[in-house]
UniProtKB/TrEMBL annotation:
Keywords: Iron, Iron-sulfur, Metal-binding, S-adenosyl-L-methionine
Species per Swiss-Prot/TrEMBL record: Desulfosporosinus youngiae DSM 17734
InterPro entries, per database record: BchE-like, Cobalamin-bd, Cobalamin-bd_sf, DUF4080, Elp3/MiaA/NifB-like_rSAM, Methyltransferase_Class_B, rSAM, rSAM_horseshoe
Gene3D superfamilies named in the record: Cobalamin-binding domain, tm_1862 like domain
Radical SAM core domain: residues covered: 171-399
Record SUPFAM superfamilies: Cobalamin (vitamin B12)-binding domain, Radical SAM enzymes
Domain B12-binding: start-end pairs: 1-134
GO cellular component: cytosol
Name by which UniProt lists this protein: Fe-S oxidoreductase
Origin superkingdom: Bacteria
GO molecular-function term, one example from the UniProt record: metal ion binding
Length: 591
């Protein structure tokens, strides 16, 4: 029997952990097992062609909210030309409402409900023996036109009994690779499928060590834990991170290795801070799901937390060099526009490295799906079931937040406008008001309909500022602070990449006063660039020839020093050094 396992990942760089568990489990009985990974952005005709040419007897698909539509389209295309092939699907997206799904999709032969590592192998053995799969746990299939459903096993699988998922040598260079050391979650969030089963199961740390070492050997450098709450058990989490540290620091490519963990902010404490303080800088990245700071909403979704209490750990961890991603979910029950505005400002106020603004997905099987009428949850009936409206948040409001998410990603999460945004926010009551107003300006201008090159985003921000910086608003913004905004935007422009031309709106007035002045200005820049001073502050300058140094540097004058937090209005010169995609700015301290 030839078995083909197929993943349609959200992006090319992603990998599928679930199918690797299945592959190694099936190989304990069948050797002819193939795994093919595609992206949902690939042409479905090409995907179907590769599956057809594999000549498998059974084809299994891993299904999620982001790929179910494409998976079904591929199976429908293959069914007429593969009448004897058995198509099996599994995963969180099809583990609920199985009967309805099979009734609508007769081209699917079987559906694995819940964890499939044991059920899938048992199904294959049943089919090969010509037996009825009535005894296979966690299975839905059609028999004589009637849909049959076998309940999932009562006993949950032990992670330590599963096959080693990365036994096969694969090249993971440039890919994001996933691992798990726990299944389950200590919380009961009603928007999450983890709330549908109780308890947390743990992988033995030394089994994780074997997996981690194999991934490093095969070129993996970005490794994500799929653990719902990585710090659910402190002792376990610390041991896993010890192993990451022990195996990474002896690796010749240690500077490129990074692991990503999703943790609960309210489970941090002083012991965690002491541990992370000494952790190798750059090795770990953390994601924390805040979701909301509005207590009535947190109560409804069964995720009580005190953001005001644990937010103190955010700047502390950032001081350790740990990038922090904080998540918000728009469209949760009982959170109105005003309440979400407060949540956004609360989280923005701690300056996370990334603020991920997501939207509620009313998942099959989730508690919120069952209570959708109670809270007026209207959602897209097709995957990914995105919220459209609630009893306190209009559809119009959610559309505005979608646009705001786009602008937030461009101007905050990109990290390209750090200085400019910090200064611009002084013109607005709150961060939310800036991003919302800017997003609606984009909508008014029709800019969302096009893809813009990076530096075009500076033009868009300046045009918006010219609109809001009317004579009336100038009364509250003196010339110095407005120059500081211009300087901050200009500074970020230089930090993007070495500019050939500076747009007029970013030019200093002193550099625009006639050809003679312009020539003097250019001479001053070259004089500063040639100073021996730089050999004392920038490593490697002595090793560069004149042309290389000129090609990799830029010198700019600023009327204010925007890197000074005290709002200093002292004029200054900066040299920007561009090397291998990295940019560093150095203030010129010479005369």
């Amino acid at each position: 029997m030839r078995v083909l396992l197929v993943a349609l990942n959200a992006k090319f760089v992603h990998t599928n952990l679930a199918l690797r568990y299945l592959r190694e489990g099936v190989r304990t009985v069948y050797q002819d097992v193939l795994l093919r990974e595609f992206s949902i952005n690939d042409h479905l005709d090409r995907i179907a062609a590769e599956i057809y040419e594999a000549k498998a007897d059974v084809v299994g698909f891993s299904c999620y909210i982001w790929n179910l539509k494409e998976v079904i389209a591929v199976i429908r295309q293959l069914r007429p030309v593969c009448p004897k092939v058995r198509f099996v699907i599994g995963g969180p997206e099809v583990s609920f409402e199985a009967e309805e799904f099979l009734r609508e999709h007769s081209e699917v032969d079987a559906l694995v409900i819940g964890e499939g590592e044991e059920s899938f192998l048992e199904l294959l053995q049943t089919w090969q023996d010509g037996r009825d799969p009535a005894h296979v746990p966690g299975l839905a299939w059609t028999k004589g036109g009637k849909i049959m459903i076998n309940p999932a096993p009562v006993k949950a699988l032990s992670l330590n009994d599963l096959s080693f998922p990365y036994a096969e040598d694969e090249d993971f260079t440039g890919r994001i690779v996933y691992v798990e050391t726990t299944r389950g979650c200590p919380f009961n969030c009603q928007y999450c499928l983890s709330s549908t089963f109780q308890g947390v199961r743990f992988l033995e740390p030394e089994r994780f060590r074997k997996i981690f070492c194999q991934l490093l050997k095969n070129g993996a450098r970005t490794i994500k834990f799929v653990d719902r709450t990585f710090n659910a058990n402190k002792r376990h989490a610390l041991k896993i991170l010890d192993i990451v540290k022990e195996e990474s620091i002896i690796h010749p490519d240690v500077k490129r290795i990074r692991v990503h963990c999703e943790m609960a902010g309210d489970l941090f404490d002083a012991e965690w801070m002491d541990y992370l303080k000494s952790y190798p800088q750059g090795l770990i990245q953390l994601e924390i799901g805040v979701q909301s700071t509005y207590q009535p909403t947190l109560k409804v979704v069964s995720r009580p937390q005190n953001f005001e209490e644990w937010k103190k750990f955010v700047p502390e961890m950032q001081s350790f060099g740990i990038p922090l991603h904080l998540d918000l979910i728009a469209g949760l029950p009982e959170e109105s526009w005003a309440d979400f505005r407060t949540s956004f400002n609360d989280v923005y106020g701690v300056n996370p490295d990334m603020l991920q603004l997501g939207f509620l997905k009313v998942l099959k099987g989730s508690g919120l799906r069952l209570q959708s009428n109670r809270y007026g949850l209207l959602f897209n009936p097709d995957p990914p079931y995105t919220i459209l409206e609630t009893n306190v948040m209009s559809h119009c409001g959610l559309l505005q937040l979608h646009r705001m998410e786009d602008v937030l990603d461009k101007y905050y999460n990109s990290g390209k406008f750090t200085n400019a945004v910090r200064e611009v926010l002084k013109l607005f009551p709150t961060p939310f008001d800036f991003y919302h107003g800017f997003a609606e300006f984009w909508q008014e201008k029709g800019w969302f309909h096009r893809q813009w090159q990076g530096k075009a985003l500076f033009d868009k921000l300046w045009e918006f500022l010219e609109k809001v910086h009317t004579p009336e608003t100038k009364e509250g913004t003196d010339t110095v602070s407005w120059n500081r905004i211009r300087d901050a935007l200009r500074f970020d422009y230089y930090m993007w990449e070495r500019p050939n031309i500076i747009p007029d709106f970013l030019q200093n007035e002193v550099s625009l006063k006639g050809e003679e002045k312009a020539g003097q200005w250019k001479a001053k820049q070259e004089m500063i660039r040639k100073q021996a001073y730089w050999e004392t502050v920038i490593p490697g300058v002595k090793g560069m020839d004149r042309r290389q140094w000129h090609r990799n540097t830029a010198v700019a004058y600023f009327t204010t020093d925007i890197l000074q937090a005290d709002g200093s209005d002292r004029p200054c010169w900066y040299l920007f050094h561009y090397q291998q995609g990295n940019v560093k700015a150095y203030r010129y301290e010479g005369s």
